[in-house]
Amino acid sequence: MAVQFFFDTKKPLNALPSPVDDGHIILNGTGTGTLFLIHGLTGTPNEMRYLANFFHKKKGYTVVCPRLANHGAPLSILKKSRWQEFYSSVREAFLQVRQEFDGPVFAAGLSMGALLSLLLAEEFPGQVAGVSCLSPTLFYDGWNIPWYSKILLPLFYATPLKHVAYFKEEPPYGIKNKALQKRIHKYYNTATFQDQHGGAEYGYPYFPLTLLHQLHKLIAHLTQRLPAIQTPVQLVQARDDDMTSMRNSTFIYDKIGSALKEIVLLDNSYHVITADQERATVARSMENFFRHIINGAESTQEKDANNDAIPACCDATPA
Q1: How distant, in Å, are the alpha carbons of 11, 67, 73, 140, 295 from that of 273?
Q2: Distance between CA 125 and CA 119 in Å, rounded?
Q3: pLDDT at position 150, please?
Q4: How far apart are CA 30 and CA 271, in angstroms?
Q5: CA 41 → CA 112, 213, 246, distances in Å?
Q6: More confident residue, 282 or 12
Q7: What average pLDDT does range 299-315 have in this prediction?
Q8: Distance between CA atoms of residues 32 and 135, nearest Å
Q9: What's the confidence (pLDDT) of residue 124?
Q10: What is the β-pairing status of strands 34-38 and 261-266?
């Protein structure tokens, strides 16, 4: 990922779709539950589409995946966003889901979306039945991250340079699947700072350092709250993640207060596990985890009902 510098003096030739064209995924299910998906930073709901279709078509879930705040706007707008705006857009969509749909709601997010899903669990502990964190991003320490980033990023954060500095996405783009990687490369290799015509499908080809700074602040906010989170949590990560190492999942696993928690490791994927070679494995692992939670809740309710019942041999009338 090479650092490039741009001054926003020209109007983009082809920006992403207007925020009015929000690109949300909303699929009404048959009553199993609701899956609330959160895409990654500078990404799109499209990167969650396989999971959306799997849970909706095969498992009957209602699926909702909102587009994060200012995603879809020109980079000149997105780069000025604060992490609180991203969470606010997620929170608003979640509250609407709780109002419109019955049954358990599970949250799952990719990369930064995983962190936002944990914030939902922290704020709404009785309303989020479980969380699946997919390639959670606390530390950019994967094998494709330049060694000098640890030195340069704090320097950029502390100076006005962060307002004009961008990372240009480079291979493998978080994808190990060669065919998909080739499609993404065809777009990213030709995209320019002024022309981002394919971003609606593949996300932004340039990553503003101002957003990395906001992610840094979000991480600091979340890590302090991990011990207070009691919601069941699943962490799914590729052993060979090019962006974030397994340390990200083990850190959350060790710090979070959840009694029910698990780590699922993948052997043939990179960072974007929702679209990569083991996406079906990811979907099945999530569904198994959610089903375990649902079955456990039903078992608890049944035990409570039996405990509350009056034995047939006893008289309910006091002597």
Answers
A1: 34, 19, 25, 16, 26
A2: 10
A3: 79
A4: 31
A5: 6, 12, 19
A6: 282
A7: 48
A8: 25
A9: 98
A10: unpaired
Domain extents for the chain?
14-297
- pLDDT tens digits along 145-162: 987 787 878 888 888 888
Phi-psi bin for 88: left (phi > 0), alpha (psi -120 to 50), beta?
alpha
pLDDT of 16 > 60? The answer is no
The residues, any chain, with a CB within 8 Å of residue 290's CB and separated by 6 or more, are: 33, 35, 104, 106, 129, 130, 132
Instruction: Provide the pLDDT confidence category of residue 131 given band limits of 50, 70 and 90.
Output: very high
Residue 236, beta-bridge partner list: 134, 264
Q: How far apart are CA 280 and CA 51, in angstroms?
A: 8
**Per-residue burial over 70-104, b = 16 or more CB atoms within 10 Å of its CB, e = otherwise:** bbbbbbeebbebbbeebbebbbebbeebeeebeeb
Structure token digits, residue 26: 């909303």
pTM: 0.89
Nearest-angstrom CA–CA distance, 118 and 232: 10
3-state secondary structure of 3: strand
- The amino acid at residue 91 is R
Strand pairing class (62-65; 34-38)? parallel
3-state per-residue secondary structure call for 169-207? CCCCCCCCCHHHHHHHHHHHCCCCCCECCCHHHHCCCEE
- Once rounded to an integer, what is the mean pLDDT over residues 158-171? 86
Mean pLDDT calculated for residue range 291-309: 69
CA nearest neighbour of 42 among 187, 184, 211: 211
Q: For the domain 14-297, what is the CATH superfamily, name and number?
A: Alpha/Beta hydrolase fold, catalytic domain (3.40.50.1820)
CB 107 within 8 A of CB 91: no
**Percent of all residues in the chain with a pLDDT value above 70, rounded to a whole number:** 86
pLDDT at 198: 64
Lookup: tokens for 31? 């009553």
Cα 238 to Cα 244: distance, rounded to the nearest angstrom: 9
